[in-house]
Design brief:
The complex is a heterodimer. By secondary structure, chain A is an alpha/beta fold. Chain A is built from nine helices and 14 strands. In chain B, strand 4 and strand 5 form a beta hairpin. Chain B is elongated and about 85 Å long.
Chain lengths: 291, 395
């Protein structure tokens, strides 16, 4: 098993004929993902390689069984793309696009939840259940099927961690990049809850960064609800306050979001916190008694 | 993006909020003329993009033309939190009966908009949060549902009171009028902060905004050209501006190891590891997810422009970014920019072998292991002289 996506997940790509959309649709297909449809307004009836293209998400959903939709639409239109997928009741929506205005997400966050749907992102690398399904932009070859769950606010840092896990012989059940924005559709807790219930996940790696209070809340949740070992890592320990470190969400402001508070909260919750990504596999093996 | 007080007040005024008259001055002589316009007592305030200007001597009162000249001259000579004061704002001194605090910002944890209010205005909210946390009222607004007017009215009554000055709406009503306009500005223009401190009750019964701190979401500036037009160059250092123009995400720091990394999370983690192994990062630099070789060239130029740099560390984890493209970009940069400090490269992920081969032809060997590579650059930078200390100037 895995969480959110598996070998049976039928995927729709919004923005499939765009530069990024077509490139990543082809890469996902090569990596074994079932890309069954695409959407680009005005291009309905055509094909991207062998994938049928529809004008709207509603048309695609009417014609095919769609389990998840991944959005590669440019930032000024990405919010509307989320809304369109939510209106068509696509159960899992993944927004890869970076740079959505924060206030827009205040609307879409609640809209998606109130309909009982799941949104991952925006500004995220997507998610992957190695050997089963990849919805996103991560390099497939660094992954390996296995029993470790990974949750992260970052992209390439997740690759770094996954690479270390794979090198150490620790495969992954599912890796979820939740996104680096201040407001994302699914937080650490949403994904931790799913890993907690997944019989095929033995331990979870939580990769946080400066900004906000989500890591603290996640630590509290772990202490109360997660019986499996959890290993943490926080990036941005050297970041100066008041400066946005690339991600819109990575900023220490008003004394909130400091790395010290996050590490302390994690340690207090019994989470083993690594100083470098390279220490993570060792901490997991220790926790699982794998020597 | 942050605005000066005078710019923030222009926005408030645009939304129909009374901020009183103001004159922006770049020279002491202009402050003298401003006094001649207002007469009586005026307040002269430094316009800097940082808090704490009052404590730094950046706010002074003047009661004559000569005094206005002199006080403006003093303030314009100040440097507040490393920022030289280049502008002052002159306003008539208000007859204040009471000061309030009102701020609207994002509550990322609760996925809502947070309206913060206090009857103890005047001091900074961070300070207030420490000295009198129970005096701050937090009122959350769900953007998709709008303001709960009944609930807000109750809170406003408690903070501003129902007193009804002759010929004016009640204090509560005046405050609500201003707050609704601040909220509209926040949503319309994608602000991240709209703060009025103090929001003052004047002795004549009017409630007005005597200061303004307004910041906007960089992600939304594409939709608000009128906001973008107010950008202040001093909001960012020169290298930060150069980086933005090149499409790079950059923050300057105090250390000596220049870092170039793809991805914000990995860039932060790389800085942390540099520090962990005894080095000090000179900057945060995310070249982004594209493979445009010109971005690497721009990154090298910006880093070599920092005289403190004694070594460069390039860390790439290929995903969408291809390591061979980065390697070609690096060679292009080395042809254009003289790099006379040690350079360590770490390549892994998409097309890393191709990238390594490209660099090898120029005698550069790339690492695969992150820790090893960091230890190498820290050791090399320790031995290297800073770029600025070299004779003859290398650029």
């Amino acid at each position: 098993m895995s969480i959110l996506i598996d070998e049976n997940t039928n995927v729709l790509v919004q923005g499939i004929t765009g530069r990024d959309g077509s490139f990543h649709a082809r890469t996902m297909i090569a990596d074994g993902t079932k890309i069954v449809a695409g959407v680009t307004p005005g291009k309905g009836g055509s094909f991207m390689d062998k994938v049928p293209v529809y004008n709207t998400v509603a048309e695609a959903v009417a014609a095919q069984k769609i389990d998840a939709s991944v959005i590669f639409v440019p930032a000024p239109y990405a919010g509307k793309a989320i809304e369109e997928a939510a209106n068509a009741k696509v159960p899992l929506i993944i927004c890869i696009t970076e740079g959505l205005p924060i206030n827009q997400m205040l609307f879409y966050y609640h809209m998606v939840r109130e309909r009982g749907l799941t949104l991952i992102g925006p500004n995220c690398p997507g998610l992957i259940s190695p050997g089963k399904c990849k919805i996103g932009i991560m390099p497939y070859k660094i992954h390996k099927p296995g029993r470790i769950g990974v949750i992260s606010r970052s992209g390439t840092l997740t690759y770094e961690v996954v690479h270390n896990l794979t090198q150490a012989g620790l495969g992954q059940s599912t890796c979820v990049g939740i996104g680096g924005d201040p407001i994302v559709g699914s937080g650490f807790i949403d994904i931790l809850a799913r890993f907690g219930e997944d019989k095929d996940t033995d331990a979870v790696v939580v990769i946080g960064e400066i900004g906000g209070e989500d890591e603290e809340a996640a630590a509290d949740y772990v202490a109360k609800n997660i019986k499996k070992p959890v290993v943490g890592f926080i990036s941005g320990r050297t970041a100066p306050p008041g400066k946005r470190m690339g991600h819109a969400g990575a900023i220490i402001s008003g004394g909130k979001g400091t790395p010290q508070a996050k590490v302390a909260a994690m340690e207090a919750a019994g989470i083993r916190v690594a100083d470098t990504p390279s220490q993570i596999p060792g901490l997991i093996k220790q926790a699982l008694g794998l020597g | 993006m942050n605005l000066h007080e005078y710019q923030g007040k222009e926005w408030l005024k645009h939304y129909g909020i009374d901020t009183g008259p103001q004159v922006l001055c770049h020279r002491p002589e202009e402050a003298r003329r401003a006094w001649q316009q207002f007469g009586g007592r005026v307040v002269i305030k430094a316009q800097v993009l940082s808090g704490g200007r009052g404590k730094a001597g950046g706010v002074k009162v003047a009661s004559s033309a000569d005094e206005a000249f002199q006080k403006a001259q003093e303030i314009l000579a100040l440097t507040i939190k490393d920022i030289p004061v280049e502008k002052v704002l002159v306003v008539p001194a208000a007859a204040i009966a009471k000061e309030f605090y009102v701020g609207i910002t994002l509550d990322r944890f609760n996925k809502s908009i947070l309206l913060m209010m206090s009857a103890e205005g005047g001091t900074e909210i961070e300070e207030l949060a420490v000295t009198a946390p129970d005096k701050i009222v937090m009122f959350r607004i769900r953007a998709d549902k709008g303001i709960d007017h009944k609930a807000l009215d109750e809170v406003l009554l408690q903070i501003f009171g129902k007193e009804h000055p002759a010929g004016l709406p009640s204090h509560q009503q005046q405050a609500k009028n201003i707050i609704e306009r601040m909220y509209k500005l926040f949503l319309d223009k994608d602000a991240t902060l709209v703060e009025v401190n103090p929001m003052a009750l004047l002795e004549d019964g009017r409630i007005v905004a005597l200061d303004a701190k307004v910041s906007f979401d960089d992600n939304a500036l594409y939709a608000h050209k009128d906001v973008e037009a107010m950008r202040n160059p001093e909001d960012n250092s020169a290298d930060e501006i150069a980086a933005r123009e090149a499409g790079l995400s950059f923050v300057s720091m105090d250390g000596h190891i220049g870092c170039i990394v793809n991805g914000a999370g990995l860039a932060m983690a790389t800085m942390d590891i540099v520090k962990l192994f005894g080095g000090e990062p000179a900057n945060f630099l995310d070249v982004g997810g594209s493979s445009n070789p010109n971005k690497v060239v721009a990154a090298i130029k910006i880093i070599m422009g920092n005289p403190k740099v004694r070594g460069i560390f390039l860390n790439i984890f290929g995903g969408i970014t291809r390591c061979d493209d980065v390697a070609n970009g690096l060679l292009l940069a080395l042809d254009q920019v003289k790099v006379d400090v040690p350079l360590v490269v770490r390549l892994i992920g998409t097309n890393d072998q191709e990238g390594r081969d490209i660099l090898q032809k120029r005698g550069i060997s790339a690492y695969t292991d992150l820790n090893e590579a960091v230890q190498k650059i820290v050791a090399l930078a320790d031995k290297a002289p800073a770029t600025a200390s070299k004779a003859g100037g290398t650029r």
